[in-house]
Every structure is written in structure tokens, then in C-alpha cells.
């Protein structure tokens, strides 16, 4: 009778472990989905030039100042179109040597050139490089996290490594957002000097897009940490299973002489 009770308990334990493993797999898959979404948002934010946007009325154009790309869009009444999104963008790279030389010439001729004040914002400053560096590291770490996360349901070691990589992803992404936010609110970065007026730059959609990716990566980190902890706990419990198999030896029939 005791043997049947032990078999029932073992079957119940096995079913419980299977349910736990299935739940852990679901949590890891959910974390991977969140990380993919975060990676897409972060990559989209980095690619966009709309980190700082300013409408300079005397130039009759809207300027988009990004981390590595700057674009200019003429005002709606200057182009024969009814949709603002159809207006053409004229873009330059911050690291373009020829564009940098033109910017330097404009700044040197600031007294006679009305575009000189705005040209300063097309330079590749140190805080641009630091922000871009942290965000690119976050994207690379997110890609590596996805590779480890695929193997995480099969191995607790990969699950722990996955959680660590996601943690570094969230950390570097947060650092990039923080550097940009504080640098963009400095007076020399926030205001653009024109010929007849001063214009205030506003934070563009690219920043909020990247921040959304950072928040989602933090949620993915929480789920990755939970799944890694659960897998480690399961490995600890599996070490005690052989001792439970010795339980039938303690039945009275085995003790008879």
C-alpha cells in the first residue's frame, strides 16, 4: 500500500515539475519577445535624426539634429504638397569631413553668415559620441542576449548568462538616455541662435522611442531574472531525487528476515 502511495506522490511531483518547466519556458519566451521589441525601438531611435527638433522661421525650415545624422525639412508653404510627411529631407552626417569643413567656415564667418549659429549644432560633439557609444553597445548586447536566450530553457547556465547580458543591455541603454537628456538641456545645446532671433530646440520622437525600448528591456530583465532563479531552484531540487527513489527500501516487507 505504501508503495502505491509513493508512486502517486512521485507522479504528482513529476507533473508539478513539468508544469514548472513549461511556466519557465513561457517566461523566457515572453522575455525574448520583449527584448526583440526593445531592440527594434532602440535601433529605430538611433537611426532617426529627430533627437532634437527646432523650427527656424527665418530660415523657413525645420531642423532635425540627431546623434550622427542631421536633416533639414523646408516649411510646408514652400513646397507643393498637402502632407507634411511628404516634404523632402536634406541630410548630412556629423562625421562627414566635407560637411565639417563647411561648418567650420560658417562658424568663422559668424558675423556675416546667418546660418553660422545653427551650424554649430551640426558638429559631432563628445556627448554625441558617448551617447551613441552606449546605445550601440546596448544594441550589440541585446543581440547577444537573444542568442543566449534561445538556449536558456535548456540550461540554467545559459539562463543566468542571458539575465546578465540583459542587465548590461538595460544599464548601457539607460546610460545613453541619461547622457543625452542632460546634455540636450544645456543652454548651448538647447537654444539655436539665428540672425534675428533665438529658437528653442525640443526633444524629438527618437528620444522617446529609445526610452520606450529601454523601459521594455528593463521588463525583459525582470522576467529573465525570474526564469534564471527558477531554473537554478529546479536544478537544486533535482539533486535530491535519487534519495527519494530509495524510499521504497524502508517498507516493512524489505525489513523482514
TrEMBL record:
Organism: Caenorhabditis nigoni
Domain of life assignment: Eukaryota
A Pfam entry, by short name: Clc-like
Keyword check for Membrane: yes
Keywords assigned: Membrane, Transmembrane, Transmembrane helix
Transmembrane segments: 25-44, 130-152, 159-185, 205-232
InterPro entries per record: Clc_prot-like
Gene Ontology annotations for the cellular component aspect, listed alphabetically: membrane
Lineage: Eukaryota, Metazoa, Ecdysozoa, Nematoda, Chromadorea
Protein name per its UniProtKB record: Clc-like protein
